[in-house]
Design goal:
The complex is a heterotrimer of chains A (126), B (466) and C (440). By secondary structure, chain B is of the alpha/beta class. Chain B has 14 helices and 10 strands. Helices cover 35% and strands 9% of the residues of chain B. Chain B is globular. In chain C, α6 packs across α7 (165-178) and α11 (333-371) packs across α13 (427-439). The chains are: A alpha+beta (126), B alpha/beta (466), C alpha/beta (440). Chains A and C meet through β4 and β6 of A and loops of C.
Amino acid sequence: MSKILEGVKYSPTHEWVKIEGNVAIIGVSDFAQEEMGDITYVDLPEEGDKLVAGEEFGALESVKASSDLIAPVSGTVIEVNTALEDEPEKVNEDAFAAWIIKVELSDTSDLDDLLDAAAYKALIEK
Amino acid sequence: MKYYDKLVFELSQPGRTAFSLPENRFPSAGKLPSALCRGEAPSLPQVSEPDVVRHYTNLSQMNFGVDSGFYPLGSCTMKYNPKINEEVASLPGFAGLHPLMGEKSATGAVKVYEELEKELAEITGMDRFTFAPCAGAHGELTGLMIMRQYHLSRGDSGRTKVIVPDSAHGTNPASAAVCGLEVVQVKSLENGRIDVEALKPLLDSSVAGIMMTNPNTLGLFETQIKTIAELVHGVGGLLYYDGANMNPLMGVVRPGDMGFDIMHLNLHKTFSTPHGGGGPGSGPVGVKAYLAPCLKEIKVSGFQGNFAVMLRALAYLLSLGKQHIREVGQYSTLNANYIKECLKDVYLLPIEGVCKHEFVFDGLINDGAKEGVPGASTLDVAKRLLDYGFHAPTIYFPLLFHQALMIEPTETESKETMDAFISVMRKIAAEAAEDPALLHDAPHNTPITRPDETTAARNPVLIHPQ
Amino acid sequence: MARSPYIPHTDADISAMLEKIGVKDLDALYSDVPQEFLRKEPCDLPDALSEQEIREYFACLAAQNANLKVFVGQGAYDHYTPSVIPYLTSRSEFITAYTPYQCEISQGTLRYIFEYQSMICRLTGLDISNASLYDGATAAAEAMMMLIACTRKKTTVLLSEALLPQVREVVKTYAKFHGVKIGFIPADGGETSLDALKEALHSGEVAGAIVPSVNRFGIVENHEGFAQALHDAGALLVEYCDPSALAVVKSPAEWDADIAVGDGQPLGLPLSYGGPYVGFMAVKKDHMRKMPGRIVGQTTDKEGRRVFVLTLQAREQHIRREKATSNICSNESLMALWATIYLSLMGPEGLVKLNEICSDGAHYLKEELLKTGLFEDLFPAKPFLKEFVLKTSVEGLQAKLEKAGFFAALPTEEGYVSFCVTEKRSKEETDLLVKAVKEA
């Protein structure tokens, strides 16, 4: 059974978003890491990249699969978790601790389209 | 097969040599200026000739080939590779021919191209061929370049999309993207064929064409091909035929008659040239006459393509001739249907009906899953087959089914070989129902067991350290 | 009538199989094909030939090709093939195997590819090699696309005019359809111009430049300052190399190149009228994830033994589909084996000696040709190895030499004539060529 953390938002493409002021911290859900299996590489964006909600900003790779990371919000990347370059397994170990990027929001209305924990639970149980 | 653990570098001893060069009878020209010289000679192995021969012979003994046993690998057409073809390809009169020699000095080679083009045109219903592409994916890319070139040459620059079925080979969308085309996917129906109703709304003046294989990757004939061709041509698009699945049509049906404008052939599949552990192949592209001018404007490889592969393909065609060509199509189809019918009570056949040269099972009907014990997967079945001396089928492709197991026997396998395969497949199904754990650990009788692929990808070790 | 020798079916087999399938005849297996598409007439092909006739057919065609002594290179070199190589590469376990996806029964292929990758890295000095590409020209085209993928937002790739014409043409073709702009760096005085490169970098649009290590005039180029200029502009350096010459000339790593590509044909692969050859590509570690093609990696199996597998597959077309950097799905595996065995046999000493013989032969030929007074040396101060160009006053020299049994003096796009001497050309043959030139 996948872990679903309360108090964070989710996108239908399985990213989680934690809001701290004007900054969104983004990772992938526990469900997503389970589906992928052993993650072997995280293709990260660079600081300063502009994200557009709904567009890809990177990818997760496992031995036999590749899955795009889709931006749940629009904004500018202000920090990248570069530790994942060498230790992609951290995403498998704890998907909520292994944040991927921090984004300065350009449009807070994007947040309205995200799901809360209950709605996300319903989505993955479908 | 036995496990042999050496790399050639580990046989190296300083001062040992295996080269044999003629004595240098030219006056010394002196050395290059030091600014252009390499610091030290590359650290290549220092071994003797017997070392080399024994090492690579040992390596070969850890390999399985078509000559070792049955290779039911879907979409790959692992047919027998005739030995006369190899003899022909190594004739000194061809092997020593420089690619820039003029046609007058290479009359024999030019005739090989002419005869091969003529025969392939007759078999496929296309008019002209280019032999430059070195593989199937290379042929696809070349074919799409021709498609775009055609539209561009007519000033029709708005055609940026190519339609690809969801069951397509992975190279189709990748080739389209490399060629600067946007990929639009069209879905398949429950019966495995393209959904014509879903295709219709995708068609407009932005469509460069559609890429299809027929039979498709499920081994099923696209029965609506005539309608599809009319619809795509109706909006000014072209039809591209992925020749990976040409084998069952040999001598029976021509892509050119079904409305296809451009196609590639895999000489290393349909035309019996060896796969060589992943290449060299050859992916000639055929077009209808009206597209022939576009062939000249596109240069996709250094010279004339893999000529020695073409020699083999022509030798094969000459041996078939008009008398035997149809046997290829018919018996490859017969073999596939036979295996399908003999196994469909234990493996899940998602789509009933006659198939062409290959078919797809969606895993085991009873995978043996019990409380706390996962069932046997397609991967497990594939690995267990290795224990019984068969190569595995293609697995987890096409993507339409989660447990896809794609079987293509080819026409060169005998009923006895297939019966042996069928009986092993049934035995594995019984093993799975009984004790799936046995399959999770397979293979047991190969030189190595399952590798740690996760570590290989997380911490890549890609060269031997110096 | 008997069936094809490659088809094992007896009449009894066919009946039994049809019965199991539940259809009455072979035609019924095509009942799903619309009638109008089924061929009514047999194929209009020649009558089937016996094996004996096939052998005669090709012997006759091979004899129609002129048996010329090759004194031309221009991307395909007539080096000697040690007999060990065709002997080993024709082992059926190598030649009739598929791509090594089932690693448990493909360790032979996987190991030699790993050895090949290691040798390409040792030759180029770079960190990572793929399992090979189609040929040198397509390897350069893949490098062009990789430059765009590595540098994001850059639009242009520069090509040296001193690259072989077929390499430039193939890169241009790929670039046209891939949507990449190509700029050319002129070759002043026979070498890629650093000044022109610097000038072209001002646009800020350049992703990288592809330049030849030994160029189409045979000149060993000096790339001092190239990498620096490119890197300062946020662009990458690609060296196009003759792998055989890398035994003696500065390696791509020594020029601080980011990517090396080239054709492995000079490593003992037969000329075969243009193929199969083998393209190679090596890159610095930073660019590993953007490199096209298969890669073999080392790992362990369940019992802890060293084993080899195809790895980093998530970059490739069968997983990435339209998002892959390249559509390549195969390699030239058997030709990579060919090159690997060649390099094992030659070793460092053999490869250096080989370069010496070729270079001495080419310098001798050039001197002797200049003595005839029929040629002008355009680049007298430029260092070269086995290949060189001259300007000549003799009209139609290539055709005249062909009549005398030589393939030599191939005209370049500027109208110079190109010569090449490999270890297969003896001093006697070289003297005979000079004699034929005098009589031309």
